[in-house]
Amino acid sequence: MEEESCCCADDLLEFLRIDVALEPLCDRQQTTCSKNVMRKQRNWERRLEAKRSKRKEEKQRKKLNKLNKDVNELQLSKRVIKAITKERLEEARGAGPGLCVDLSMTDCLSAKEISRLACQIRRLYGCNKKALQPFRIFLTELKKDSLLYKECVRMNDGFLNYLIDVTEESWFHLFPSEDVIYLTPDASEALEYVEEDKVYILGGLVDETIQKKISYTRAKELDVRTARLPIDEYMVKRPNPKNFHSKILAINQVFEILLTFRGTKDWTKALAAGIPPGKGYMVVSAASTDINTPEEL
């Protein structure tokens, strides 16, 4: 019995030694395993970051390419529009109705009014550039040493490159009198049509210069036909606190009316487009609506 007890004790001690010896081995394996996992984790994170960076770069590259494409298309569009506009203006200089601004009366204007007239010339030209059916524009008796010429150059970008005819001569020497219609608010005859073979003369005055019948008197002295816009035929006075009503318009406003009528053949639309509400007039259709509304109520 004693021998058996001794054998059992020896076996137990041997087993314990083996178990104790195995513990460091498992720790080392776990440590090795953890290092492998961490290494794989770092590799995976690096690959993920590289993919993210690549996607970001690709996205930025596409965005930049799109931006460059949009800029190129915009530049192309501007060039195309500019070319089309130039072609239309050149065609108008060869055919179609003429619009002449008579600048023989600028001696009547103050320096402030001269500046305003230069601004109106810029707006007139801007309207003509946008028009599908532009007029041939003339500026007559515009002397290069005059204040108006200097103001046009100073205030109007690209004035020297305007596709218009600028001359120091009088319109009276440029056009046959039978082809001329001088537009003035003092004329008795209302303009009915915009004729393709006529030249329409506008007096180079501004609406601040309320000097009666200057352009009308000049036209009569030269014995040419005069006409007024058909404001009385298609518009009525708009009630306003100051009871102000004026038919005197800036040259660019008159020109916008002519352009609109030429495109629409409708005086109501043309006058509504060109005459500001502040002038105290409204088209008859709008007036009828205003008059009928209270009755209906």
How would the blueprint of this fold be written?
Blueprint: H1 2-94, E1 98-102, H2 111-130, E2 136-140, H3 147-155, E3 165-166, H4 171-174, E4 180-183, E5 199-203, H5 214-221, E6 225-227, H6 231-234, E7 235-237, H7 251-264, H8 267-274, E8 281-283, H9 284-296
Parallel strand pairs: 1-2, 1-5, 2-3, 4-5, 4-6
Antiparallel strand pairs: 7-8
Helix pairs in contact: 2-3, 2-7, 7-8
Report on this model:
The protein has 297 residues and is α/β, with parallel strands linked by helices. The protein has nine helices and eight strands. It has helices at residues 2-94, 111-130, 147-155, 171-174, 214-221, 231-234, 251-264, 267-274, 284-296; strands at 98-102, 136-140, 165-166, 180-183, 199-203, 225-227, 235-237, 281-283.
Order of SSEs: HEHEHEHEEHEHEHHEH
Q: What is the residue-averaged pLDDT?
A: 82
* Distance between the amino and carboxyl termini: 130 Å
Class computed from helices, strands and strand pairing: alpha/beta
What is the molecular shape? elongated
Key terms for this structure?
10% strand; alpha/beta; 297 residues; 58% helix; disordered C terminus; 8 strands; six-stranded parallel sheet
